[in-house]
Amino acid sequence: MNVLGTMKVLIFAAVGEAATGLALLIVPSLVGQLLLGEELTGVAIPVARVAGIALIALGVACWPGTPRVGMLTYSAAVTLYLAYVGFAGDLSGILLWPAVVLHLILTALLILAAAASDKETKT
Known about the structure:
The protein is an all-alpha fold. The chain is 82% helix and 0% strand.
């Protein structure tokens, strides 16, 4: 397979994974029903949404360009979603807030790394 063919396959896979991730984020119970024959309920819903965020980030990372954008997408989105779960829901394990803080720090470091990389490229 030539480079153009490989790129097309990668783009096709990226779109497929991102679309599945978006579906998991928006309608996780329906995705569970369609894939597994059972609706997702309870704690499976936020777990499926985090998996959806990861699949969207995988799609972004596999798109032609820098994989850092995919990791930044995942880290920022999961930070926001886990914080939302902690504030809005009754789901709060002992590691929820440490995970939010860890992803917040990781997001900031990825932004700083991107800025430093852009600065190096321009000079």
